[in-house]
Amino acid sequence: MGGRPATTVDEAGLSDTDLDHHSSKFREHNYEIMTDLQSRCPVAKPSAWGGYWLFTSYEAVFDSCRDSDLFSNHMSKAIPALPVEVSFVPIDIDPPMPQKYWKLLLPHLSPKAAEQREPALRRTANELIDAFVESREGDLAEQLFPPLPARWTLQLLDFDESRWPDWIDWLHFLIHDRA
């Protein structure tokens, strides 16, 4: 195996580990490392990148979604704590508030709604793919993965989808540059 991350377990049963998910060690041995972690702990707290929670099983994710006291979305409880006063709805709020927002959003994101919008999504995807097929080179991470969901979202909102780069910049600022 690629080496077991050093791990300690605290009183709550949560594991601290030196795992760095961006390291070459993890890249080369990710399945082995994750299998090992899954066998030892449902929730790990790697110290890399300022610390974060790593859920190693479906059950751990499921349980954490129902324990907002321990696994809060509020930025004041982030690891590391961020000095953010204003919450970004619905990402930074805990139950029961998100359910009110999801109730508004889900009819537009349901399988039936997605099925009705499939032809438009396929047209957009084909247009993006055709652009790099014609040029005989392309980078999916640059030319497909950012514009497709951004344009799809702007279509759902009935906004000008040609402004998708502005949309992405705005979202990245709201989510990542708030501190």
Give your account of this protein's structure.
Helix 4 (111-134) crosses helix 6 (147-156) and helix 6 (147-156) packs across helix 7. The chain has helices at 24-40, 58-64, 97-109, 111-134, 140-143, 147-156, 164-176, and strands at 7-9, 15-17, 43-46, 54-55. It folds into 2 domains: 7-71, no CATH class; 110-176, no CATH class. It contains 7 helices and 4 strands. It is globular and about 50 Å long. The chain has a 4-stranded mixed β-sheet. The protein is of the alpha+beta class. The two termini are 39 Å apart.
Q: Topology of this protein?
A:
Elements: E1 7-9, E2 15-17, H1 24-40, E3 43-46, E4 54-55, H2 58-64, H3 97-109, H4 111-134, H5 140-143, H6 147-156, H7 164-176
Helix pairs in contact: 4-6, 6-7
Summarize the structure.
The chain is α+β, with helices and mostly antiparallel strands and 179 residues long. 49% of the residues lie in helices and 7% in strands. The protein has helices at residues 24-40, 58-64, 97-109, 111-134, 140-143, 147-156, 164-176; strands at residues 7-9, 15-17, 43-46, 54-55.
Tally of structural domains: 2
Helix segment tally: 7
Please state how the strands of the largest beta sheet are arranged side by side: 1-2-3-4
Q: How confident is the prediction overall: mean pLDDT?
A: 81
Taking the alpha carbons of the first and last residues, their distance comes to 39 Å
What gyration radius follows from the Cα positions, in whole Å?
20 Å
Strand content: 5-15%
Shape: globular
